[in-house]
Specification:
The complex is a heterodimer. Chain A is mainly beta. Chain A has no helices and 11 strands. The chains are: A mainly beta, B mainly beta.
Chain lengths: 112, 114
């Protein structure tokens, strides 16, 4: 059973702090890794994707991938109250490279 | 609006009725995916389609659920004889190519079965 695990939270950080969200996956053959943000009652919004080991930065967001440890993380710098949402980690694992397997998400709360 | 479009946004059905959910992918995208999000559960993959072809339906329930993506028009997810357990948010996503590429989600259809 291919799985993606996330701490459900809530993760609470003050405004301006760094939020660190973590995710582990079970299938060592996984190729692509994604972070989606989902506000309550809304659809998932893609915020980052990473394919290679190391860091990838985009604005206030940094995705980190360690395939040896089967671990992917998302750092949000200068957290804002508008960042308060559920963050979903997703992995493409199947041979066809098509189906996203999602974790259950981590709820982030940024207090002003 | 160049994003993924879904309609209706909200759908209410009584047990035993049929539900039809429609999805138009982003312009230039020919790969369509359907996902379901049950209350208090994560997003689950259902099916992947290209024009006129179902490529992967490994996540589809074996009965009552079907999907199509005709040559012309939107992709359709069809649920026959709905039951209360079908109440969920159904999301469509599209991607410009495969494999391993990012998928962009539509606003979803919230299905409520009375």
């Amino acid at each position: 059973q291919k799985e993606v695990e996330q701490n459900s939270g809530p993760l609470s950080v003050p405004e301006g702090a760094i939020a660190s969200l973590n995710c582990t996956y079970s299938d060592r053959g996984s190729q692509s890794f994604f972070w989606y943000r989902q506000y309550s009652g809304k659809s998932p919004e893609l915020i980052m994707f990473i394919y290679s080991n190391g860091d990838k930065e985009d604005g206030r967001f940094t995705a980190q991938l360690n395939k040896a440890s089967q671990y992917v993380s998302l750092l949000i710098r200068d957290s804002q109250p508008s960042d308060s949402a559920t963050y979903l980690c997703a992995v493409i694992h199947n041979q066809a490279g098509t189906a996203l397997i999602f974790g259950k998400g981590t709820t982030l709360s940024v207090s002003s | 609006n160049a994003g993924v479009m879904q309609n209706p946004r909200h759908l209410v059905r009584r047990r035993g009725q049929e539900a039809r959910l429609r999805c138009s992918p982003m312009k230039g995208h020919s790969h369509v995916y359907w996902y379901r999000q049950l209350p208090e559960e994560g997003l689950k993959f259902m099916v992947y389609l290209q024009k006129e072809n179902i490529i992967d339906e490994s996540g589809m329930p074996k009965e009552r659920f079907s999907a199509e993506f005709p040559k012309e028009g939107p992709s359709i997810l069809r649920i026959q004889q709905v039951v209360r357990g079908d109440s969920a948010a159904y999301f469509c996503a599209s991607s410009p190519k495969v494999p391993y590429n990012e998928q962009f989600f539509g606003p979803g259809t919230r299905l409520t079965v009375l």
